[in-house]
Amino acid sequence: MYRIMIKKDGFTLVELLLALFISAVMAAAIFNFFIAQNKSYSVQEQVSEIQQNVRAAVNLMVKEIRMAGYDPTENAGAGIITANPELMTFTMDLNSDANCHDYNEYITYSLYTPADGVKKLGRKGKQGENNAPVAENVEAIGFAYAFDSNGDGLLDRDGSHIIWAIDKSGTWYDLDTTDDGEINAADNVVAGEITGISVNLDDIRAVRIWLLIRASKPEDGYRNTKTYIVGNKVIRPLGDADPGNDHMRMRLLETIVRLRNIGLQTG
């Protein structure tokens, strides 16, 4: 007869320590994976929020600015009222009643800061109306304008490049100071370059829009060291001395709107 020997000693201390060590390593790996996934989700959520915010705002501006000057009766005097680097006002006669006094016919876009301290892109749909928020957490907005000053049906150019300019007290300054067809960090956009061209608001044929929006909250460990050109402004997250320490993600969207209803030749 054979006897079965059963070991009754259990686990040794070394075996228990080894098991605890393996369990701890696995728990740490799972925890770190969870933290990484959660951070990735948070970043993607912020990026998605910024993109939706900036795209929705720019799409609305493009849609309405494109209609500037709509004047089917040719008696409303619709057109561009104010063309500033950070504010644009324009009118249209949507109901063909020969004036631009109705709601959504006298529109202003600009940046404003309400009581909550969060800068917003504001829209006024009528003269004298208060700003209604279009987008929140707006860092900067910029406008520049292309024009046909001699009435030849073509946008004025500097060589082969379209002039995108801003008005400073009646003098128009081209933002592309390097004359390479781009408006970027290489240009001295703050100073600009005098075009020497006399421009009336009725000469404007296209508008260039920049909208820079920041995240609603900072992200630990993120450093935004980018430089943003927004019209005639250079934006750095924390200035020249120490850029990037505010830990805020930003999104810049730039687009061009051709004005369909200004400068049309009628009867």
Strand content: 25-35%
Number of helices: 1
Main beta sheet: 5 strands, antiparallel
Portion of residues within helices: 10-25%
Main β-sheet, spatial strand arrangement: 1-2-3-4-5
Structural class: alpha+beta
Low-confidence stretches: none
Helix and strand run: HEEEEEEEEEEEEEEE
Structure in a nutshell:
This protein is α+β, with helices and mostly antiparallel strands and 267 residues long. The protein has one helix spanning 13-65, and strands at residues 80-83, 87-91, 106-112, 120-124, 132-136, 138-147, 157-158, 161-162, 165-168, 171-174, 193-194, 204-214, 228-230, 233-235, 250-258. It contains one helix and 15 strands.
Structure characterization notes:
This protein has one domain. It contains one helix and 15 strands, in the order αβββββββββββββββ. By secondary structure, the protein is α+β, with helices and mostly antiparallel strands. The chain is elongated. Strand 13 and strand 14 form a beta hairpin.
